[in-house]
Design brief:
The complex is a heterotrimer of chains A (318), B (277) and C (351). Helices cover 31% and strands 15% of the residues of chain A. Chain A is of the alpha/beta class and 318 residues long. Chain A has one domain. In chain A, β6 and β7 form a beta hairpin. In chain A, α5 crosses α10. The longest helix of chain A is centred in the C-terminal third of the chain and has 16 residues. The radius of gyration of chain A is 20 Å and the shape is globular. Chain B is built from eight helices and 14 strands. In chain B, α6 runs parallel beside α7. An eight-stranded mixed sheet of chain C has the order 3-2-6-7-8-9-1-10, sandwiched between helices. A four-stranded antiparallel sheet of chain C has the order 5-4-12-11, with no helix packed on it. Chain C starts with 9 loop residues before the first strand and ends in a 5-residue tail after the last helix. The chains are: A alpha/beta (318), B alpha/beta (277), C alpha+beta (351). Chains B and C meet through β4 of B and β4, α4, β11, β12 and α10 of C.
């Protein structure tokens, strides 16, 4: 999608000019439609960088490993917001970072493509503006990008990263309007009868294997000791039983209130394709409704759950 | 079918000894509630269970000649040790052991023995020394030179026994502290420095080292300078363990498991296994 | 119909007779089958009406869970009024344990699991009793996945190692090929569900085997690979992998060989149980001690542990290699960490 050569050249130039310790970006992976996050630390290694519609994973997560170093990082809209939350939470210093922004056309749904086109390989996919071309053994299939966006990306209202040190050229795409599909999904679940809703989540979470990919991919799960691993008290055990699984997901979700930027990385990383966006979509909608707050948009407004205001909604206190 | 390797033997706490001034190290004397005490050798360890909390590994502090009981000295650190410290005499705990190898007593035969210990890890060395000082085993090693250091005099374990050892034949005792109190008349020195100063004879000697990683790290070069070969220096290792039988996968140093192939390794072995020595 | 007792007899089961056969089989023992759950199949105890997926190659979750469950009660404890805990070991089933629809990769993995749970030190009782009861009705792989590479790791789509019976799926039926006396005893009571296979079936198997090509490369020379990895402890390549690795448990949980575990107590001081549950060397907490010290605290140390264990420590300890080429970790790693690439990286040129 982004011209590989100019991406490499631009980032290499930034790396040298700014005297960075490294640049966090994406390299080609070995499996179809899955790039591998990478840290480039040598000028000659920038050719390995790629950017395409499958670079879903929020790179801000990797900043924790490079604290105190001067890092360049490629940011989409959601990565940018995550960086801002981390700065706000004093996990990283903005001045240590050089943000290279990429206006994001929305990321593509790998599972959907692989389901519709089994065996699809990365080199068979080309993106051009709003169009997706699949080269299937001599047969070129033309698809509309917007039909293959991830549900979280479909609903994204902040595709273009703001306040970056360098904004790469806007790509020749028509930024799709954020649609209400995720909000509708969340709303329809909120309107379910309690037992029906519980059943839905029981069913979804019954597949969880407690691999913690959703936690480990999240930029905001940086606790030194996660509650899952605490021994005093031992809140839960690693046995994949419904109580442990439910406890894990509900508690992780609560820790995300006012922080989750709906990047979709957790659902994307889940090997069981658990629809975590439904949990987090509801959380984000509630925070927005109760506190008129969207995480990661500005550094100065305090996170609603880490500060008290006498105007905070208090209906639940009764 | 064999006995379940993860089923502990139930043991009753017969006696608890408060070892140090800070009261955070207790010695538990355990007697079996059922069955016999499986025979063990100095250097081996057991997994001690508090039911409802879990298990943790501890080196035997008792010596095999002390029949009918085993002893473990436990410092209050994490969840399990805190629970263990709350138990009183008469309470029942679980024990799985002996596990691991032991000190290679055959390699000590006819040799002088330099024993270097520091801090709380001294427990397993107490087992070794108590064993070698019994009349029936005394002939198994030559002269024993013991170095034992702690942060301050209140932290020595097994104080009454240390006093007895002072008078033992062919035995020299070198206690040291990092910081003295008003009653302390011995040296104030780090263990490696004291070893260097005393410079025990090494021509026909082997050494055993057990203690906190920095003590081990700085003692090893001293022992080598004194002339000990890396094959004659034995180190008792500690690492997080669960199963104790080489299955659960966490305590490996390279291809060897501390629980199954150790915990006692020679310095030569350790250098082949990891970069840390 | 002739009933043969030879050990390599061929029988045809019409596809629509499969549920009835499985139900009959399940009456006399414990039967595990691949069941579609979400987008991936996993092995679950059979019950009537459960959907079965014999197409996913391989099932997303390995068959190791049949012998080494994700969590398992080792014993329960219960304190009476005297305060003394009574310990009870769960009773073991004594009937046979049939693993149905298991593929060659998972069966090769059992050799590695045997080395760990039976031979490494004391035998693990739970594993041992399940292993002794195990009968395997395996299945040939007609369409290996793009990530499969069992052919380099000692297996193959039609390999029968570890199988008592091998199924070869036909269009509207399954061919059952009895390979061992155990397989013969297992199927004999149920032959009414089957038809004897004719010459045509034998030709058909040969044609299917011929048509299933998995040629991903030369068989791996594990001695060579072990030496190469051993001597590249400080290779920056490990850092490259660590820079991407999330430290999650996907690769180890979906691996048919990975068998790291933890022991935890569930319950109150009065009553509860000690449970063994899967753990992962990729988790940062795996080796973290109560003091906070962590010998494998860095991501790179954990990434190395995974591959060193599989390709160096196992070989050094004369145990089977820790990888059977099922490709599950490759297919499921979110950050595209690829064990095939590790092998390529350290295989000497030309091998």
């Amino acid at each position: 999608m982004t011209d590989k050569v100019s991406l490499a050249r631009t980032l290499q130039e930034v790396f040298q000019r700014e005297g960075l310790d490294g640049v966090i970006g994406y390299a080609a992976g070995t499996t179809p439609l899955r790039p591998r996050p990478t840290v480039v630390t040598k000028p000659e290694a920038f050719d390995s960088l790629v950017f395409d519609g499958f670079c879903v994973q929020n790179l801000a997560n990797y900043l924790h490993r490079h604290r105190g170093k001067r890092m360049g990082i490629l940011v989409k809209g959601c990565d940018r917001r995550a960086v801002r939350v981390l700065v706000q939470e004093k996990q990283i210093a903005r001045e240590d970072l050089y943000l290279i922004g990429i206006p994001c056309p929305g990321m593509l749904n790998r599972s959907q493509l692989l389901e519709e086109y089994p065996g699809l390989q990365g080199d068979q996919v080309a993106e051009e503006g709003d169009t997706l071309y699949l080269e299937l053994s001599g047969n070129r299939v033309t698809l509309s990008r917007v039909d293959y966006l991830l549900p979280t990306c479909r609903a994204c209202r902040h595709r273009v990263p703001d306040d970056v040190d360098l904004l790469l050229d806007p790509l020749p795409f028509t930024s799709p309007e954020a649609d209400g599909s995720l909000a509708d999904e969340v709303k329809s679940i909120a309107e379910m009868e309690g037992e029906e809703r519980a059943g839905l989540f029981r069913e979804e979470l019954s597949r969880c294997i407690l691999c913690y990919a959703c936690r480990n991919v999240c930029p905001f799960c940086y606790c030194e000791t996660c509650f899952t691993d605490s021994l005093q008290p031992a809140w839960m055990t690693p046995a994949p039983e419904p109580d442990n699984i439910f406890f894990y997901h509900v508690n992780r979700m609560m820790h995300m209130a006012g922080r989750c930027v709906t990047c979709g990385s957790c659902e994307w990383a889940c090997p069981e394709h658990i629809q975590l966006r439904l949990l987090y979509g509801k959380l984000v909608a509630d925070v927005e409704e109760l506190f008129a707050y969207e995480p990661g948009l500005d550094e100065t407004t305090p996170q609603p759950l880490s500060h008290f205001s006498e105007h905070d909604p208090d209906e639940h206190i009764g | 079918m064999n006995r379940h390797p993860f089923l502990p033997q139930r043991m009753k706490i017969a006696r608890i000894v408060d070892e140090v001034a800070t009261h955070d190290i207790l010695t538990f004397e355990l007697v079996p509630l059922e069955g016999e005490i499986a025979s063990y050798l100095p250097g081996q360890f057991a997994e001690i269970s508090v039911f409802g909390v879990g298990e943790a590994p501890f080196g035997y502090a008792s010596s095999p000649h002390e029949e009918g009981l085993v002893r473990f000295t436990v410092k209050r650190m994490g969840a399990l040790t805190q629970e263990l410290h709350r138990l009183g005499e008469g309470a029942v705990v679980g024990m799985r052991g002996p596990l691991g190898n032991s000190f290679e007593l055959d390699r000590f035969r006819g040799k002088d023995l330099i024993v270097v210990g520091g801090g709380y890890a001294f427990t397993t060395l107490r087992s070794l020394i108590a064993y070698l000082l019994t009349p029936e085993h005394r002939g198994e090693a030559g002269r024993i030179t013991l170095f034992y250091g702690v942060r301050n005099p209140g932290l020595f374990l097994y104080k009454p026994e240390l006093e007895q050892w002072r008078d033992a034949e062919d035995f020299s005792l070198h206690l040291t502290v990092d910081a003295a109190d008003e009653d302390w008349t011995g040296p104030v020195a780090l263990v490696p420095d004291l070893v260097k100063e005393v410079a025990p004879e090494t021509t026909n000697a082997v050494a055993v080292v057990c203690g906190p990683p920095p003590m081990i790290r700085f003692t090893l070069p001293v022992l080598e300078e004194l002339g000990l070969r890396e094959d004659d220096i034995f180190i008792s290792m500690e690492m997080k363990m669960k199963c104790g039988v080489g299955m659960c996968g966490r305590c490996n140093l390279g291809p060897k498991f501390v629980c199954k192939d150790g915990p006692v390794f020679t310095l030569k072995e350790l250098r082949e296994l990891t970069d840390d020595f | 119909m002739t009933r043969t007792n030879t050990s390599d007899s061929l029988w045809i089961l019409p596809a629509d007779a499969l549920p009835a056969f499985l139900s009959a089989l399940a009456e006399n023992g414990e039967l595990w089958v691949p069941v579609p759950v979400g987008e991936g199949a996993r092995f679950l105890p059979y019950r009537e009406g459960l959907p079965i997926d014999l197409t996913q190659t391989p099932p997303a979750h390995p068959a190791k869970s049949i012998l080494f469950p994700h969590s398992e009660v080792l014993f329960t404890y219960h304190r009476g009024d005297d305060g003394i805990p009574a310990l009870t070991v769960p009773e073991f089933d004594s009937r046979f344990l049939v693993a149905f629809g298991v593929r060659s990769c998972d069966l090769h993995a059992i050799n590695a699991l045997d080395a760990i749970f039976l031979k490494r030190s004391v035998p693990d009782t739970g594993y041992q009793q399940r292993r002794e009861r195990l009968r395997v009705i395996g299945i040939a792989c007609l369409s290996p996945a793009a990530t499969c590479f069992c052919d380099r790791m000692g297996g193959g789509p039609f390999d029968t190692t570890g199988m008592d019976v091998q199924i070869v799926p036909f269009e509207e039926s399954y061919l059952f090929r009895i390979l061992t006396e155990g397989g013969n005893q297992l199927l004999n009571p149920y032959l009414d569900y089957f038809q004897a296979a004719d010459e045509g079936a034998i030709r058909k198997i040969a044609a299917l085997e011929e048509g299933t090509s998995l040629q991903t490369g030369q068989p791996v020379d594990f001695e060579d690979l072990s030496q190469a990895i051993k001597t590249h402890n400080d290779d920056p390549y490990w850092e490259d992998l660590a820079n991407a690795c999330l430290g999650c448990g996907i690769c180890t949980f979906v691996c048919p060989v990975c068998s790291c575990f933890t022991l935890v107590d569930e319950g109150t001081p009065r009553a509860g149980r000690r449970v063994r549950a899967w753990d992962a060397c990729m988790f940062s907490t795996f080796t973290k001690e109560a003091s906070g010290h962590n010998p494998r605290g860095a991501e790179v140390a954990r990434v190395k542990q995974r591959f060193f264990h599989k390709f160096y420590y196992c070989i050094e300890n004369e145990e089977p290699p820790g990888c059977v080429g099922c490709g599950r970790c490759v297919a499921q790693c979110p950050t595209s960490i690829d064990i095939r690439e590790v092998i390529r990286h350290y295989q000497r040129e030309g091998t």
